[in-house]
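Data deposition worksheet. Section B asks for the primary sequence of the deposited chain exactly as it was used as input, without tags or linkers unless they were present during the calculation. Section C holds the resulting structure in token form. Section D is free text for depositor observations; keep each observation to a single sentence. Incomplete worksheets are returned to the depositor.
Section A, Depositor: J.P.
Section B:
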Amino acid sequence: MLQVEWLMLIGAGGLFILLGLGAIMWSKGEKRSYYEAISHHLDVREYLEHQPERPEPRALKIGGWIAITIGIILAVVGGALWLWG
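Section C:
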């Protein structure tokens, strides 16, 4: 394969890493905005105990870590094949 194809693989890995970091930052913002707005909660107990737990921030964080892992794997494989080939 051409070296350009390996660079595309490395670029795709970098894109996945950036998307993963963006998703993790977004989840932190969602969690912070949800728990800081006490006026939108039905009662104070929900605010203090964070129950029920919102699945969206946690799902964004997990998806971000998965994207970062895939990005690292793509970048490492692309870099190894680029140097080897």
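Section D:
The mean pLDDT is 83.
The first helix runs from residue 3 to 36.
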